[in-house]
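User: Last request for today: this protein with pyridoxal-5'-phosphate, please.
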Amino acid sequence: MHASRPEVIYLDNNATTRVAPEVFEAMVPFLTEYYGNPSSAYSFGKRVEGHLIEARKKVAALLGATEREIIFTSCGTESDNAAIWSALQTTAIAGKKHIVTTQVEHSAIMNQTEALERMGFGVTRLPVGPDGTLNLADVENAIRDDTAIVSIMWANNETGVLFPVDQIATIVKNKRAQFTEANPKNKGPFFHTDAVQTPGKIDLRHVAQSDIDFLSLSGHKLHAPKGVGVLYAKKKTRLVPYVIGGGQERGKRGGTENVASIVGLGRAAELALERLEDEQVRVRTLRDRFEKTLLETLPDIYINGNREQRLPNTSNIAFDFVEAEAILLDLDLAGICCSSGSACTTGSLDPSHVLTAMGLSHARARGCVRFSFGHYNTDADIDYALEVIPPIIAKRRAMSPLSRDHRDNFAYDVEAAREKEEKLMAATMAAINE
Ligand code: PLP
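Assistant: Here's the final one, the structure of the complex with pyridoxal-5'-phosphate:
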């Protein structure tokens, strides 16, 4: 083991990020001195309101938008849920009951659309290719005249793969124009993108000029605190509130504003713009060096996701013949934080829905680890990780009952994977119907 083991090497920046010291500093006065309610009539409260306006301007600048297009929420999940809810409410009068999304969304969209399905809404979940990318023709073909909303993430949290949301937004807008021309009451579909993983990593300043109707952000992914989020709603796009209460956020989201966190998010948005180049150049270089060295050092490892259309900070690696959970355990002991896409439910390990949608066999998907880098990572962090990881993999492989002799189990074959799933599904349905 490394002689001077650091306490924590944080390589899980897609899970959450450290609150930037500048952000913390900006927040403190609103937890100590300026604790007034911004809706109060007296000046002690009103003073706070001015800072909310400032924060709103800073977040709007991240998207090239105006303050009126920014609604503060409690998290990325709420923003996602609110966008879909709003579109369903707006288009209910036209009888729209269909949603288009993908098979690789975050659980915020995945579980909400599953709940809506149980309530009678129709959901089309578009497949992705072996490199995690989408086929634009599939998006266009999936939109029906009863589609209320198309919700497609900008960057995948597990693989970092980017979807061409600008082009998708235009496809949706054109479809909407067609439907409205045929029937003026037919107002949808709208386009929403979960952009939670993008700020500070890619330039978003063109958003307000694009055809995106709704976009979600989350404070804790960009060095602001947890528990604050943003919903961008394009000018003139109707937003029906999801959290109904007081008239906060111009009646678009009830609940007393989380002032300190919103101020912190404003500062974090400024920093994200200032540090965009750091992320795109320095952090990308760290990530690329990490991947290149591992690929040169270890046999039977693969990078998941399209190498070009990818966030600069994310690396999802398949280590064949090893269980990701065992790797994570060893890395944790070595002080390295990273994650696997597996959801551990009731003791059984389900492989990541993102990786299985890309056609990875269950065997390979169970050996995948996500490393996500960020502004506070240094060359020394990468050196340390590169020193620690190869012997861990070698040790785990030596203990593993799987080896190259079981190569077939690790086949990377989308068609075969799909066929297998379909057969399994047919067998399950037959058993249910018996
Ligand atoms: N969407 C994506 C792509 C995410 O990665 C996350 C968080 O992991 C969320 C939504 C949820 O954000 P929050 O934790 O703020 O609810």
